[in-house]
UniProtKB/TrEMBL annotation:
InterPro entries: NUDIX_hydrolase-like_dom_sf (IPR015797), NUDIX_hydrolase_dom (IPR000086), NUDT19 (IPR039121). Its EC number is 3.6.1.77. GO terms for cellular component: mitochondrion. Belongs to the Nudix hydrolase family. Fatty acyl-coenzyme A (CoA) diphosphatase that hydrolyzes fatty acyl-CoA to yield acyl-4'-phosphopantetheine and adenosine 3',5'-bisphosphate. Mediates the hydrolysis of a wide range of CoA esters, including choloyl-CoA and branched-chain fatty-acyl-CoA esters and at low substrate concentrations medium and long-chain fatty-acyl-CoA esters are the primary substrates. Highest activity seen with medium-chain acyl-CoA esters and higher rates of activity seen with the unsaturated acyl-CoA esters compared with the saturated esters. Exhibits decapping activity towards dpCoA-capped RNAs in vitro. This is Acyl-coenzyme A diphosphatase NUDT19. GO terms for molecular function: coenzyme A diphosphatase activity; metal ion binding. Keywords: Hydrolase, Magnesium, Manganese, Metal-binding. It comes from the Eukaryota. It comes from Cyprinodon variegatus (Sheepshead minnow). Gene3D superfamilies: Nucleoside Triphosphate Pyrophosphohydrolase (3.90.79.10). It is an enzyme of class 3 (hydrolase).
């Protein structure tokens, strides 16, 4: 792990989407959120997104609805993974596609040379292992591939396998509960589980999406440098709370979630608000998956929001905004001084910000062009017509 990071803990999270399967075991979880005010525009989505409600006792963002994920563990970098992935050791990056973004502009969480830190596991592999493990711990969704498919995987790295929708691995209920309890008790048991069940964490189904850093003085002393990945499943898998950090789960369309947030039925943090608004551009799962798969090799920016206060409104500045610090690392501890003034210049040519009037009222202002072939949030698709949001 990158021990040189003093202010942030490295983490990985997964935006997990799935085609709708309204069977008896998933009907209640996919019912539109109460108070969402969902209209026919919600039903145009043929997929749902998994959100997990953090426990009220959580030390980081209690009661928030979040994507599954968590902090990197030393076991995610264990040399024992070399045995699990031994058939892939001759493939660069264990078969992951290379990213076009120059190394010098890559976010440190991806660019850090883990070998120099003593890890034989590439960072982009360990981050995906972490996302798969944490998703299993928190939701019971197991994203693995049987080792019997190793040959087909290797042969298809340059073909279409990785661009196809994937399925979660279904374990017997008792077997699932047993391994989930063991992994929750000790993350290193995830390696043991993969070895005994002869499966591989499906790192190839996860597509690089974004990198967010927790701003200072917002959610307590804990700050995370988090890699966001996208994964598209063919259908909604069986999902269970971990009854420890997670109180409940919800599979809902992106627009349903955002409307519930506006209706104050649930609370999501700015990164979730931004990313859910972004994927609202894709009403069809196949379109979202195609975009995520193709865009993933472009790279991504490191986004550390810098929060300022103006007229009783918090403004979360993002890279590219005209007021974003040239060297945001200098604002890593205290953001702008309390007596700093926002520039009231009429020049709106460079806006990339989230206006936060209260915890449930957020407005996006974006005029800058997204980098790395990414897309802006679809504000017009997620807010009422009288919204003051603007692109």
């Amino acid at each position: 792990m990158n021990t040189s990071l003093k202010q942030w803990k490295e983490a990985a999270t997964l935006i997990l989407t799935a085609g709708r399967r309204l069977g008896l075991d998933t009907l209640s979880s996919r019912t539109p959120l109460e108070g969402s005010g969902c209209t026919s525009r919600c039903s145009r989505f043929d997929y749902d997104v998994l959100l997990l409600k953090r426990s009220a006792q959580s030390t980081f963002m209690p009661n928030a609805y979040v994507f599954p994920g968590g902090k990197l563990d030393s076991s995610d970098f264990s040399s024992d993974w070399l045995d699990v992935f031994k058939s892939f050791l001759n493939s660069p990056g264990f078969g992951l596609r290379s990213v076009k973004q120059p190394a010098e502009s890559r976010p440190p969480i991806f660019a850090t040379n883990r070998l120099k830190l003593g890890s034989p596991i590439p960072g982009e592999v360990a981050l995906r292992i972490c996302a798969v493990r944490e998703t299993f711990e928190e939701s019971g969704v197991l994203l693995v591939v049987p080792k019997t498919e190793e040959k087909r995987l290797i042969e298809s790295f340059q073909d279409t396998f990785c661009s196809q929708h994937h399925r979660a691995h279904e374990l017997d209920g008792d077997e699932l509960s047993k391994w989930r309890a063991l992994v929750n008790r000790n993350p290193s048991n995830f390696i043991r589980m993969c070895q005994e069940l002869e499966v591989l964490p499906n790192i190839w189904a996860l597509h690089e999406w974004a990198n967010w850093l927790t701003p200072s003085n917002r959610y307590g002393k804990r700050r995370f440098d988090t890699a966001f990945f996208m994964c598209c499943l063919q259908e909604i898998p069986r999902t269970l709370e971990d009854e420890r950090e997670i109180e409940r789960f919800q599979w809902s369309s992106p627009s349903e979630i955002l409307r519930s947030y506006q209706a104050r039925q649930l609370w999501i943090a700015p990164p979730q608000f931004y990313e859910l608004s972004r994927i609202c551009r894709f009403p069809l799962l196949k379109e979202l998956h195609s975009f995520a798969y193709q865009r993933a090799t472009e790279g991504c920016d490191q986004w550390m929001p810098v929060v300022v206060l103006q007229d009783q409104q918090h403004i979360s500045l993002l890279p590219g905004d005209k007021l974003y610090p040239v060297d945001s690392s200098k604002q890593a501890v205290g953001d702008f001084p309390k007596d700093s003034r926002m520039d009231d210049s009429p020049d709106d040519s460079k806006l990339h910000r989230i206006l936060i009037s209260d915890p449930y009222t957020a407005t996006l202002q974006i005029t800058v062009k997204p980098k790395y072939n990414h897309l802006h949030p679809a504000v017009e698709q997620t807010f009422p017509q009288n919204s003051k949001s603007q692109l």
